[in-house]
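lol ok so funny story. i was supposed to be doing the assay writeup but got distracted and ended up predicting the structure for this chain instead. priorities right. anyway since i did it might as well share w the group, maybe its usefull for someone
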Amino acid sequence: MLKKLANTLAGYKSGILAYYDYRISLGPLEGTNNKIKTMKRMAYGFRDMEFFKFKIMGLHETKYALIV
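and the output, tada:
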């Protein structure tokens, strides 16, 4: 089991070490994508795509949890 973990980490070695060189994280982007997907699941009542686009653009102005 420990060998399997070591092999997995060895496969991701370049990506893990790249973080320490550039200090870039995709966490905020993943969070935004998650909010958009959640909104999309809840969007059955939206009348048009234009309103949905405005809701997505509004996500960038908020600093709190998703409230639809």
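The chain has one domain: 2-59. The mean pLDDT is 83.
back to the writeup now i swear
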